[in-house]
Batch of 2 targets.
Target 1
Amino acid sequence: MERPLIIALDVENKKEAINLLEGLPNESLALKVGMELFYKEGPGIIEAIKERGHWIFLDLKLHDIPNTVKRAMKQLAELGVDLVNVHVAGGHAMMTAAREGLEAGKPAGVASPLLIGVTQLTSTDETMLHHELLIEKPLQTVVESYAKLAQSAGLNGVVCSAQEVPLIHEICGKGFLTVTPGIRQVQDDLGDQVRVVTPEKARTLGSWGIVVGRSITAAKDPFAAYQAIQKAWEGKQ
Ligand code: C5P
């Protein structure tokens, strides 16, 4: 999938997910399934979405000892998802193990799922970094260093703010994937997001993929919202 507009399926259950999909264009979409939906429905939700021909980012942010992550990633790869992620804080050995697990589990004849890392959650600020996690470096230095570590462990990219994309590209090169949430059109509610950018801006900053939730899923007309955002993301408006 080239430069996907990834719709975050942040809903409670399969029924709601399918309802939402039925209100969207009848084409192959890029969808993000997170912990809420996956923990409720299990692998069946992935099968149901794949049957409809969609591309899937399974956003479970694994973080455990290398052997456990390797075995868990093997299971996720067997589901045939397209993109998965880990916390970079799990370290180099854990990330390498994640990659090995994906290779071991991928169905025959298809590419192994892409693997990206979470550098720091957007809910972590500098105060928390210093006073709770006891990491003394500035947040930006930590993000840069974690991105380099992720790349050295063979990850394909990171989740980051679109505003961080130019810096990540400078450090890791343009081929390193950047998946960026926090996307809003100018007229949209910010909700709990603070540092937001428009789809057009994400494009010009060089995001590889954008993650859009409520601007589509909570819109009065999700179909129209999806089309408008897709157009803006493709630079067609
Ligand atoms: O509704 P909204 O567009 O804010 O949803 C953004 C999605 O991206 C949510 O699923 C959220 O959990 C996810 N996300 C995020 N910030 C991160 C990582 C993931 O908003 N740093």
Target 2
Amino acid sequence: MNLIFLGPPGVGKGTHAKQLSKLLDIPQISTGDMLRASIKAGTPLGMKAKEFIDKGALVPDQVVIDMVKERIKEVDCAKGFILDGFPRTVPQAQALSEFTKIDAVVDLVARESVIMANLSGRRVCRDCAATYHIRRLNGATKCASCGGDLIHRVDDQIDTIKHRLEVYRVQTEPLITFYRDAGLLLEVVVESGIDEDFLLVRKALEL
Ligand code: ADP
Ligand code: ZN
């Protein structure tokens, strides 16, 4: 099954995509994680992407399109994959439709206050990209799964968050209509807590 998780930054795409990835035994493909890995590795692509990411802007379409096109050719994607954070623009969605078939698009929806709280309290493991929220960390500063340092992403600071939400509205929200018109959109309201929300995601997908 080839799936897309759509929704604003901080709505929980990564969290639910990871859980679903385990359940279905297909990979979660996060373009944000891939770009951050390139930055950490100091590749030319990473250095270029960093300028955009730190500002809260989108990296150029062709960069992420090429990345995803190559990634889904890998053997672990043979049974399907979950795209998390891609596509984010109409040109990305059009390009995607030319090289693969999508079965469903899960559109996660939450109030802006919920999203702001998720983002501003988010901490990320520097080493394995696991995400946490300060309300559940109880002061811990290390990753529970690998022991890596937890960091507050530069783009999770309040001014950049506001800019990312604006970028989402202008550039990504049109994809809701794009995929609704294609008959692929499944809307899920995620405001009840991770476990209950995940059940709603499964229900929407009839899993
Ligand atoms: P979030 O879901 O919290 O916004 P991501 O990790 O998905 O975070 O993305 C972080 C940043 O990486 C984005 O703000 C953007 O700069 C870049 N990025 C990730 N995916 C894409 C994409 N599909 N197109 C353009 N830029 C992207
Ligand atoms: Zn970790």
